[in-house]
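Posting this for the archive.
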Amino acid sequence: MNSSHARLERLLGGPALAALRQRLRRHFERQDGKDEGRVLHLSQLEPAEHEALALLTGRPSRTARSVRIDISSIDAALRAAGLCDSLRDALERLDGPIMNRVALRAAAELAWSAVIQRPERTPRLQGWLQTPAAGALLKRLARRDATTAETLLAQADAVLRRLPAPGLPRAQLAAQVLGNAHALDAGQPVASLVLAAWRRCEASAAPSSRDVILDTGLCSPADSEAQAIDEGTRDIWARAGILVNELARPVLVLNLPSLAAVLAAPGEPTYLSLRRLLRESPAWSVEGRAIYVCENPNLVAIAADCLGAHCAPLVCTDGMPAAAQRALLDQLASAGAHLHYHGDFDWPGLQIANHVLRSWRAQPWQMSTRDYEAAVQTAPHSQRDLTASNLTATWDPQLVSAMCRHGLAIAEEAVADRLIEDLRLA
């Protein structure tokens, strides 16, 4: 260590003055290189820090908690003493280079701007990147590294160019496009970008009809957050034609007419998996026909027992529609079916009904206030089991008030006899 460096260490170095040096370094880090901010006010100084500044400025050492220092004067004093060229030079010699954070931020902003503005990307991805939330999500997924963000966007772009891809498993899509079968698993950065871009595209096309279960708040209180997220993402992938857990939660149907494949023996309920619905894309013979939709599988069993092959086409949502149920209802609505929905007279049942009626333009099926009042008179019940609610039944504004007044939930199975009469084919 040469003599000038040793003197500089005694003057401003050492652990006792580390905090002071950091404060001085932050001052220079904030400068843009044109204006060094020649006067600096320092407060809440420790005695050792005040003494060191007094030696640097040549002022008498007095007990004080704050001081104003002139950077130019300190620079001149350090040069005259033969220690270094400036205060900034002294700090760099003691603790390493001082980064110009203003310039770094400007360079980072330019880099991010260049990442986002890539006209050659697919419109789905580029359109999402223009939304307010896109930048924050991208920076989080890329850990604020523009190079990483560029890579993630290139991968998301490649995936989106393959969509829709009817009946393709997600793992196969990931392996073919990204070389890793798990690259599109839940929580993976590229998957998050693809889903966000796809959802934005859907929302632009039909904002009210493509709400994901998690976002509409329609999950029943018993559902866990993880289950809601899983159903939501699986549903989005399904609408893009991609299979995720394609055998989970198949949709239960009875006497659903198809132009080609025989689904089951007449009068016999059967399950249709998401895999089958997306891979085969059945041609439904339903144009202009009434298709009944219920909430509970028990009603399908009752209808099959009572009516068999003479039952009108019946589809079960099994609670809130999941990916397979949504795929089938999409297909039926697109094929020109007239959907009629019935569910439980309770708060989750009304939430599901609101969702089905809104998403597929279904008509309420024996779900009016009058129907509820009639059910209260005849359906067995033991005690009040409904508390007050701020829900609204979109098809009948008086229904919630009636349910709150009686305080009774009516299960769909309790009115099965009334529903069976509607399902009986002439």
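The chain has three domains: 3-99, 105-239, 245-423. The two ends are 104 Å apart (CA to CA).
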